[in-house]
From TrEMBL:
Record protein name field: Luciferase-like monooxygenase
Gene3D superfamilies named among the record's database cross-references: Luciferase-like domain
PANTHER family: LUCIFERASE-LIKE MONOOXYGENASE
SUPFAM superfamilies: Bacterial luciferase-like
GO cellular component term, pick one: cytosol
Amino acid sequence: MTALSVLDLVMIGEGKTFADAIEESRQLARHVEQQHYSRYWIAEHHDMPGIGSAATSLVINEVANATRHIRVGAGGIMLPNHAPLVVAEQFGTLDTLHPGRIDLGLGRAPGTSGPTVRALRGAAPERDFSQDIAELRDYLADNGKRRVRGVPGSHDVPVWILGSSLFGADLAAKLGLPYAFASHFAPRYLLQAIAHYRANFQPSAQLAKPYVMVGMNLFAAASDAEADYLASSHRKWMLDLHVGRFGLLPKPQEGYVQSLPEHERAVLEQVMACTVAGGPERVREGLRSLIEQTGADELMIDCRIHDPLARQRSHAYAAQALAELG
């Protein structure tokens, strides 16, 4: 059976505070743990007023403290923003605090603007992503290959490669690591990338055969109309982001998509092509279709709903729909 997981950007909604967003994430993590979700990942973003996940490792620790057994991790850490040693120390520490529950997903996009990247890394020269991953894994393994040690290191932190192109697929295949495709916002190369990954996969000590996670947006409710209404917050935020407007997660709006000019609807349809919004039947069929197209081992749901209780219900509907597929 395909596994189900959550991607959380710790969205700060209109009329809410950062503290509210953190508490909503804690509550959602507890809820999906009861629904037998596999993982709860936090995504790193910086300098965006509507996103509260900039200090990613600290948020991961909060979520892990709030739950008992669900795996918690980064989806992902944008490695160009950090020295590999610092990431190894942070995630080695997290694994020490929460043994056997921590994942480390790595991406190569900075996830922010040029000035913010320079503020994060200072005058550090641009580095090779593949080399940074090798260095980071050496620190985690504490294998003696580096003069400097990552303390505490941890053999037990699974490393994932995140991507939205053939580059990440190729790297994950060569390293024998699990691959997560960011089709929830960049779906264009989904099928091509996962086919390349599977065809070129080389087994490793971490992973014997390919493992594919597919990101998707999912908004589930009692009816199609209610789900479309709830999804309007996410859709408006994504369209605003595309045109350079950075704000809080808006409240839902009736008839939002229908109110847009044709060119904006086209942009939204392209960016959010990997989206299911609907009542139980539409959600079940949407999940079935995506699984059949991709053969995904795991689906990771991005669900930015302004009302935290409606968001919890959406994830419960999704879990039920997947269970009905068998």
